Amino acid sequence: MVILRRFAILLFAGLSLIFAACSDDDVDTSYSVIKDSQTPMNELDEWLMENYVIPYNIELRYRWEDNETSMDYILVPPKYENAKRMARILKYICFDSFDEVTGSSEFIRSYFPKQVDLVGNPGWNSNGGWMSQGSYTLGSSEGGYKINLWYVNHLSDVLYDENYMPTDSVIRDRTELNKVYFHTIIHEFGHVFHQKIPYTTEFNQITGTEYLGGMWSSTFLSETDPQIYALGFVTAYSSYSADEDFAEIFSTYVCSTKEEFQAILDKAGTKGKNAIESKLSLVKTYFAENWNLDIDALRDTVQKREANLDNVNFDVLN
Asked: Residue 293: how many CB atoms within 10 A of its CB?
């Protein structure tokens, strides 16, 4: 009882001191300990609002958010300048091309994924495969509502020739832009369409016995192995499944000049060429009949814009 009584007295004395101290201090009601989590809009945010959100209802995210990125890779955020370049060039080559061919911004607004997440580096895979240095991931889509676009910091890199002499920046090289970004973007966009309206089963039957599934990356000697084309595929990844084949034909055709696509056909031999042309014909018909989209016109428009890269300053938001 003595111990408890002493503890009560000490507790009462301590509380008395606390209340006395509090009563002597004035509370500064002009200051809040609650911090505003919103980041003030900068130049890029304002441009994205005017050029992505308002016309297309699309959000491009470039600030780092852990819950929006894959935990299977070591990833870094994009640099601000590269995010700005990616935003500009995505609109110029992709959105504006579809707008021009379809006559309005409604096509992209209705069908393009509503969220684009940018990541600075590629996702290096550990399975090796037909690339001796290992394969890497450049992008992915999630249920048709989101596209993850990686390796954005490559936009600041300088390309080198065979003698390791600097030649040009990535943003001026249409081949590199297609390889790293736009082939992936158009490919992932292609999946959105067939997930909404399936393509004809006739497509599956043309090279149905040749699809390799997970063996695609170890079957061919390289990404340009002639056997790829001879089997009736436009890329090695086309041989994974019919869905990937459909998306790869769409993307490869749109991102290639007439001469580049013809070169693929020339390498394919008679059997492979017939298979590729048959599938391409079905893809063209599918988009024309189901989406009122002329992919020949789309290809021409994309190539026209890519040929004009030198005349556009992607560092300026306008």
From this structure: 18
CA distance 265 to 269: 7
Cα-to-chain-centroid distance, residue 128 = 22
Q: Please name which of 299, 301, 294 lies closest in space to residue 258, comparing C-alpha atoms.
A: 299
pLDDT single digits (tens) 15-72 = 444 444 444 445 455 544 444 556 788 999 999 999 999 999 999 999 977 666 655 6
Closest CA to 178 of 95, 93, 237: 93
Rg over alpha carbons for the chain, rounded to the nearest Å, is 27
Backbone φ and ψ for 147, nearest 5 degrees, come out as -120, 130
- Token code pair at residue 269: 């031999």
Would you put residue 42 in left (φ > 0), alpha (ψ -120 to 50) or beta? Answer: beta
CA distances from 193 to 112, 239, 280 (A): 9, 20, 16
Segment 129-174, tens digit of pLDDT = 444 455 656 666 666 788 888 889 989 877 777 777 767 788 889 9
Cβ neighbours for 137, distance < 8 A, ≥ 6 positions apart: 73, 122, 123, 124, 125, 150
